[in-house]
Amino acid sequence: MPHNQNFYTAGELAKMFNLSKQTLLYYDRIGLLQPEFVSENGYRNYSLHQYLTLEVITNLRKLDISISTIQKYLANRSPEMMRKLLEKKDKKCQETIEQNENIRKDIRVMFKQLDALEETCLNQITLTYRHSKNLYISKINSKSGHMGTIYILASHNMKVFSEHHFKERSVGWIVDGESFLNGTSAGAKAYFSTVSMNYYDEKENYFETAAGFYVSLRFKGTFHKNKRKLSKKISLFLKRNNLRPISDLYVQPLLNYWMCTSQDEYINQISIQVEQMEEPAEENDK
Asked: Of the candidates 15, 23, 46, 232, which lies 20 to 30 Å from 91 by C-alpha distance?
């Protein structure tokens, strides 16, 4: 019970709102809620006026309104100021909802990719029709060296994935198709990422893949380590099916350092566009 009918100690007032005494001491220190008076023995004494003010403070804090904002409101209380306060908070809540929805969209994309990984068939060559895609590419200078190439990759990531844009898929790279199939140099010519139309103003960095039939193969391990074996396998498939490559090779990581530590567990996909070669004309029987 209070020491008298008009004032409450810090402990008594704090208990009414399920707060700690330290919270009231903090409010006193910053000038948000000061006691009516401090007695000679050091006890802080709060009146009904402080009780009512604390009710406003605790309920506005439940709306996650900052202490500094509450402090300004308490100095200028009115229906109009309360409306402005709530409208500002409501707008902030709406922004948070939109941000969380965007996060959930990115999470669903990742779930979709994880589901696709579970259904991945390795070391099987497929021939499928693909629609055209818009790519954002960053060309790699053959003289860049290892460190220079990393800088190009970092710059590519910054262009494609903004500060608040989750990197939902790995960046792929383009390899000269003829060199790959010949078993010679198969270094990357450019990095690429699939983007929407008119996503960037830098038109020279856009590339649209042609619609058509693509030969694809998914495999475990790194491309660099397996490229000769992959080259032989794809070349044999093209020869047996009378197909001719008509594009560069696209290498797309499906499982990499994001979800495994050993490069031997990586899963990559290579794809190259092809067309049917004409059958040689048969001689007429005489």
From this structure: 23
